[in-house]
Each structure stands twice: as C-alpha cells, then as structure tokens.
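Hi R.,

Here's the chain you asked about this morning:
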Amino acid sequence: MKPIGYAFLIAQLQLPVIQSGRAALVSPSVNRRVDTDREILFPTGVALVDTPLGHLEFALRHEGMDLAIIEAALRHIAPDTLIQRLRTNPNGEYIRRIVFLWEWFHGKELQAGVSVAGRYIDLFAPDQYVTAANPTRHAGYRVSDNALGDRRFCPVVLRTSYAGTGDFELLMERLTTLYADSRTTGYYDRAVQYLYLSETRSNFAIERETPSASKEERFVQILRHAAELPQLDEDQLVAIQNAAVRDVYSREAGYRNRQNWLESHTGRITFFPHPAEGLHETMAGWEAFVNDTHRGIDPLVKAACASFGFVYLHPFMDGNGRLHRFIIHHVLAHSKLIPPDLVIPVSAVIMKHIPEYLDVLTAFSGPVTRLWDYRRHDDGPEILQSPGPAPYRYFQADREVAFLARMIERAVEEEIPQELQFLQGYDNAYRRIDAEFDLPQKDIALLIRLIHDNGGRLSKSKRARFDWLPGEILNRLEEIVNLAFEEEAR
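And the predicted structure, written out as tokens:
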C-alpha cells in the first residue's frame, strides 16, 4: 500500500512531526474510501495530484487539519508554487486555507496578488473541531480564523473528544447548587477549607513530595487567590514557581534558556520538553491563549490545553507539574461558571487515577521524544537534532480534554459530595460521643477520623495509642462512629 496525504509528506519530506490522525493509504483491495481504526484506505484511482502541494490539498480535504505537518510541509513548498495554484483556482477552499496558513505561520503576507471572491470559509470545520466562538475574518483569502490559538501556540481538539460547552456548564451549575445548599447547613466554609488543603497535598503527592507546613500553606493561598490574578505571565508564573518548588536552589528568575529532560529511575530519557530555542516565543503564545477573553474558547478546553500545554512546554527546570495543575484552577476561576472562592479538587481525583493520568502524559511525551536525535553521556544527553517547536505548539489535545472532563465530573459527582457527607457524619458522631463520654475534644476528633478512615474499625496499633481507654469503650466508639456515618449516608 502506498502512503498519500500527510503520510506521504512525512515520509517523502522527512518531516520531524507526529501524525496525530490515521494514515491515508492507497490500497488495490478497496474500490471506495474505507475507514479502519488505524488507517484510511483509498482506491488506486483516487483523484490526487502527485506533488507535495497536491498531497497537502488531499490531506486537508480527506484527513482534516494537522497544523504541525502543514507547518513542516510548507517549509518545502515554494511560495511561487502556492501562488500559481491559487491563481488557477482562486476560490478553491483548500488552497485558500493553505495560503492563509502560510501567512499565519510566517507572520507576513505572501503577496499573491490574487483576488478571491468566494464566500468566507472557516479555517477549522466547526462540525469536526472545537473552535473559537468569535473568529476573526481575513478578507484577503476570505478565511474566518476560528483556531483556538495563534501561530505561537494552537492546540487542536476534535469534536468527538468532547461533548461540548452545554454539558460542562450544566455540571458547573450542579456544583454551584451543591455549594449553595451546603451554605444553608453550615458546611460550606469547612468543606472549602478541607478541599483547598486536600488539593494542595494531592498536588504535591503526585510529584511524590510531602511539603512542609509552611509550603503547604503558601500553596493553599496561591489556590485561594487564583481568581484574583488577572492574567498569567512570566512574572506571575515565576512567583508561583518559587513558592511551589522544594528548595531555594530550584527557584527560577524566568523561563529557561537551556534544555531540560526527564529520566526514569534507570537513567533512560523519557521526555524532551520544548527545545530551549524558540521557547520564549511559544510561551508568549501560551500566555496569549490562557489570558484571552475575546475569542470565546470553551473553558474546559482552555483549561485542558493550557495546563497540559504548559507541562509539555516545561518552561522551568522544576515545579512544572505543580503549576500545570494550578493552571486548571486559574482558568476555571476565571470562567465565571463557578464562585471565585470555590475550588474543584482535581488533583485529589487525579491521585486516584494515576495510571490514567500517566497514560495521557506518555501518549504525548513518548512519540515526541522519539523525534529527537541525541547521544547518551554520563553528564547528560548531547543533542544532535531537535524537532523544533511545532510538535509542542500544535499538539492534538483530544486525550487531555477528555481526561480533564472525566476528572472534573468525578470531583463534582463523587469527591465533593463525599466530603460534605463526611462532615455531616463527623458532626453526628462527635455529638453522640461527646454526649456519652467525657473525652478531650482533640481525642474525639482523632478517634472519629481514625475509625472512619480504617473502614469503621480502630486498628490494633491505634488501639495501643489509646491504651488508657478500656477495650469495651473503644468498641462502643466504633459502634457510634459507624452508626453516625450510616445515618448520613441514607
């Protein structure tokens, strides 16, 4: 079978990119287009001009938009070739998108001198892709730019990966109602306080770090004030990074100017983030994306693309993972879908789904790292060639959006209700124990948590801690705690 479209361009032009979709192939065994899980098969007589530009037009028509491949391929197609094709077909949708993207990638006009009179066309098909609600019209080629970002940072998200804004807004409405109801019962402030602390500890735990009390409190305050930061820029991110890293030696003064990488415990390189060259320009695009208030980007899509995009770019030598998860809160806090003092315990839910989380990260890090050419040395890799910024700027974020949607849904439907139910059960148990026994308040509080967290029983080692209490009293305390929580669960 012969590769065509994007697969042809990658193989023929040796493009340092990852094909995000299925490979298109010509197969003598089919007489029409056949879509499989891994390939798109076309018959041998399929209409195709066998040139790089012909394959690029074919790809846009049949395979959709892959910005990283398009950007790399246009480096090998002469501008005069594009202009000539536009002159022969000035109203052609695919060549208009291609010349528009040439100017978009290069930041300058092609000077084609061609008058386009056709209707406006969308850069991304809205029925196939998540797009900006408020696109910008460009009169030259009559293209409506509805991309999620700009040439410096522009993730791509398929419609099939995300149900859409409506469902997410309904979920946020349920969350707001849940918190409003908890205010009337007096549990709101206590629940929020716990969730901020839980989110902080989980955020550090994902990085296998136990923060000191002072660092823990600093990060709690960072989360609490997420809605008050009008925008995220280099200075703000540096300040948060300095507060989040483990020691003063890891604090940064700005985005990195040298290459970093991640290693496994065996010393194997598992991820090369964005090359140091071009990083500041990419981060400027990332900042424009996360701070945008005009293009109308779906808040869940923005949160997923901004947060995962940040960790893929890895602009600091340390602390990127913690900031990556903070960015989710920042975007949601500015979405106006939830109260500004409310936090969704995303990290706490991620902690319960670490393999799923790692699958999302490695689905990007594995393929993109294979694009790098390097030699191993004892003091680190010698970089021979990098793929450049494109794979990091234009990644397809389907997995990331779908994953974050699942984590937020579980936080709203499971994690937060469980905490509210715990507080109700805790208060019920506390009242009963305090009425029946004359015990110090701190001991009652500790006993309730120890019994509840251990499935309704006080472990042997914990019983030894309360050896001043008779066994029958400890048995009665277990009975009270279990009864109290069972009543609240009904």
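The CA atoms of residues 302 and 422 lie 32 Å apart.

Let me know if you need anything else.
M.
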